[in-house]
Recover the amino acids of this structure.
């Protein structure tokens, strides 16, 4: 084989199918990402932020969680100190709004739909999120102090201030540039 054929063969093995956004379009490489850890420090998944023509997409892949809906938010401090992850602070909320996608006085910039975890404890989901998160290449995700993606133990009711009654923080990842 010529060198380019070897390279092409290696790439075809290395490249898994690209994640696809809600429009069915493959997502480009992430502009930012967070490795999600549980309260013991074990890796349970990853969150990735990708810029697409129509905005920004947040991909979340996790395993080892309890089945069912889980609140998930972008929190206002880039710090994930276990076991309670209180270091991540409250939700990203530069506009001073109330919590919840269904709150007339909301939402926080960091609010998201519930993460639906399957019976096997895993989830692999893509959310459409605000372009403000990566405006100008960085945006709100990289404000002073950084941000973190936090998964909670229970369901987010999408209106109870300040966190939707979603309970303890069970996974956390600091948002970093790139993949
Ligand atoms: Cu939260």
């Amino acid at each position: 084989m010529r060198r380019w054929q070897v390279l092409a063969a290696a790439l075809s093995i290395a490249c898994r199918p690209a994640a696809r956004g809600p429009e069915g379009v493959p997502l480009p490489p992430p502009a930012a990402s967070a490795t999600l850890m549980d309260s013991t420090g074990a890796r349970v998944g990853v969150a990735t932020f990708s810029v697409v023509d129509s905005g920004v997409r947040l991909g979340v892949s996790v395993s080892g969680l309890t089945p069912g809906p889980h609140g998930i938010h972008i929190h206002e401090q880039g710090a994930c100190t276990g076991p309670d992850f209180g270091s991540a602070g409250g939700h990203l909320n530069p506009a001073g709004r109330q919590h919840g996608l269904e709150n007339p006085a909301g939402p926080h910039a960091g609010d998201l739909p519930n993460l639906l975890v399957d019976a096997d404890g895993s989830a692999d989901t893509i959310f459409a999120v605000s372009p403000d998160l990566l405006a100008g290449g960085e945006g709100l995700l990289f404000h002073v102090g950084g941000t973190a993606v936090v998964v909670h133990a229970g369901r987010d009711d999408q209106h109870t201030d300040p966190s939707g009654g979603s309970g303890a923080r069970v996974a956390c990842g600091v948002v970093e540039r790139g993949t």
Q: What stands out?
A: Residues 1-16 have pLDDT under 50 and may be disordered. The two ends are 32 Å apart (CA to CA).
